[in-house]
Amino acid sequence: MVNKHWKRIVVKVGSALIAPHKKGCSSHFLLGIAQFIANCRAQGCQVVLVSSGSVAAGRHLFPNATSTDVTTKKAMAAAGQASMMATWEKLFDFPTAQLLVTHGDLRDRERYISIKDTLFSLLDNDLLPIVNENDAVTTDKLKVGDNDNLSAMVAAAADADALIICSDVSGLYTKNPNIHDDAKLIKQVTKITKDIYAMAGGATSDVGTGGMQTKIEAAEKAISHGIETVIVNGFEPDTFNQLLKGLNPGTLFTPFEQPMQEHLHWMTHTSQAQGELIVENDFNGNLEQHNSQLTSGDVIAIKGKFSVGDTILVRKGDGTKLAKAKSNYSSCLLNFIAKQVDQEFAHDVEQKNGPLISEKNIAILE
Fold first, then answer.
1. Which site among 45, 110, 126, 359 is 20 to 30 Å from 247 CA-CA?
2. Which residues of the sequence carry a binding annotation for ATP (predicted)?
3. Residues marked as binding for ATP?
4. Binding site residues for substrate, as ranges?
5. Both 172 and 30 in a single domain?
6. Across 128-132, 171-175, 239-243, least confident range
7. 212-223 and 147-157 are packed helices; what angle lies between their axes, rounded to 10 degrees?
């Protein structure tokens, strides 16, 4: 059976599995995945499915399209999403639910909590949530861009125990296995380093948008939340038999022994910085301590436009990232304060309104 400590898992399926021949949806490779999901549920393990494929599923409906510009891709997604959901629904004998999200939804704390609540309600009522990015309406500013990273964000929101990312290769190799015969599969990764990212290389599929690098990014997000992550070959039927037996058919990424707190994980890996506060290169303040908080006197530049409550990045002038935090000031007010010659004025404003960033909502970056 699946690992006994897995009570809730997220399974991510990519476009190449949904529409392998670029002629609409096919259940050829999905049947084994569907049976795996059904078996997990039968064993008492809740499942959330993150499924790419709306664009790939709708592409064949636009035979006269001479280019795949953004507008055409959105139309393809709108047409293909219904087909993709119908394909999945035919493979299950239990109810499913569609949940379409954008990064704009996930990075807004109130909407993120709403997504969590919806997921929990669906699972509590024994429905299978099928999550996808809302490609038909999202913009470059609001999109995640790939469903690997989306699956990690969803796994964190769902408080999952494991994330299973289905790929077109059996996991992370020392080299690209499609090019190098001597490439070796790495069965377990205990720490994600620059060397691990170097091995990831580029994309191997011409259907999806996420290559191995985005899968490593997703694994890094998930394991920091305490979520065991496995990259497996979704095209191999035996993959799911091994998973059901509690075996590792791909590359296992072991989770942090001390996971990040939920709100700090959201701040670090899901919330998107709307602007930046730049400090001197020799800044050595402890941003987590109230008595050593950032002041306008420490800031040498303000970048971007942001409002009170937005997430911002604090970094040094040399580019070193120090923290992501909730801003207690708008960029407009900060720019106004910065232009004042009278430092007493800035001090009075900060005495009245409090520190620039919230010490309760700050994620230190290494």
1. 126
2. 12, 167-168, 209-215
3. 12, 167-168, 209-215
4. 52, 135, 147
5. yes
6. 171-175
7. 10
